[in-house]
Specification:
Elements: H1 6-11, H2 23-40, H3 45-51, H4 56-63, H5 71-80, H6 86-99, H7 114-125, E1 128-133, H8 144-154, H9 160-174, E2 184-190, H10 191-195, H11 201-214, E3 220-225, E4 239-243, E5 252-256, E6 261-264, H12 267-283, H13 287-300
Parallel strand pairs: 1-2, 2-3
Antiparallel strand pairs: 1-4, 4-5, 5-6
């Protein structure tokens, strides 16, 4: 059985080892440093690739943080880029070693597609997570029975043990919200997400109670866009904005699709979505109004 209340959800089972500087973020930071060093020396990706017996596309993937870098390759690139200072070399090589460390989510690798693994790695180190949802309660706020009902929509033929494994991954992610230096989670929900029945009446009541309870956390904000607000800024559908404290980690807009996801990190794209999110927060009304609506829906469910 999985826990059902906030206090149980966040503390049940064995603690999940975490680092607020996950391997995904470290790969991106390492890649950014290698790119700056290469560009400062006027070296092309083709030349850098030849130095480590690789293609220019591999250098591109390394610089974007999409692939782990072998320590030997990083050492050869540092030599090519003229990095002679031992302290500077060791700092970058140490970053490369730490970037190859597997995250806690590796235990779920059998069910975790690579496009979502990237998201979990970024979610792990975000300082703020702003998300808008239409149909469902966001994964970070789902109770186990609700999560199970949502997962079954996509994996109807999966064996029960796989479904429970997927539920376990979703619940493990939620511990992020109560850790030291937990990120700020700001969720905007369409009223439809509250009224769409998932898993039956009792599951929905449990989920609504959880939403009311979790807003007691100082780092969690939930707003509701009511039906009577009419049309609103986020006509394109759900999205998440991940914001990071490190200057070398660009803020990212995450848009999930059926079998893949979009990661937008160009400043113009991120700014557009930030503007939409800000407008949504205004159109949604106050946090207190959202809590009242949650209580009304719970009473009617």
């Amino acid at each position: 059985m999985y826990p059902t209340r906030l206090s149980e959800t966040m503390s049940a089972g064995n603690p999940v080892p975490r680092s607020r500087t996950g391997s995904t973020a470290l790969r991106i930071l390492l890649g950014a440093q290698l790119r700056r060093l290469r560009e400062a020396r006027g070296i092309s990706r083709e030349e850098a690739g030849a130095a480590i017996r690789a293609t220019h596309s591999k250098i591109s993937r390394l610089e974007l943080g999409r692939n782990s870098a072998k320590e030997r390759d990083v050492a050869d690139l540092l030599t090519l880029y003229g990095v002679r200072d031992e302290f500077e070399r060791e700092a970058i090589l140490d970053l490369a070693r730490r970037a190859r460390t597997q995250g806690w989510w590796h235990r779920y690798s059998d069910i975790l597609p690579s496009w979502f693994e990237t998201y979990i790695g970024l979610e792990e180190v975000a300082s703020a997570i702003r998300t808008y949802e239409v149909q469902f309660i966001p994964g970070l706020l789902q109770v186990p029975d609700y999560a199970r009902a949502v997962i079954l929509l996509r994996h109807t033929g999966a064996p029960p043990e796989e479904i429970e494994h997927r539920v376990g991954l979703r619940i493990a992610r939620q511990r992020l919200l109560t850790e030291p230096n937990a990120p700020k989670l700001w969720t905007v929900l369409d009223e439809a997400a509250l009224r769409r029945p998932m898993g039956g009446r009792e599951v929905m009541r449990e989920q609504l109670r959880h939403l009311i309870e979790i807003t007691e956390l100082p780092n969690v904000t939930v707003q509701i866009v009511p039906f009577d607000a009419g049309g609103h800024a986020a006509a394109g559908g759900p999205f998440t904005i991940l914001q990071f404290p490190e200057p070398d980690l660009a803020n990212v807009v995450y848009i999930e699709q059926i079998n893949s996801a979009l990661y937008l990190d160009k400043p113009k794209d991120v700014d557009d979505y930030m503007e939409i999110m800000d407008r949504l927060c205004i159109e949604a009304g106050s946090v207190a109004a959202g809590r009242r609506l949650l209580e009304e829906v719970l009473a009617a469910t």
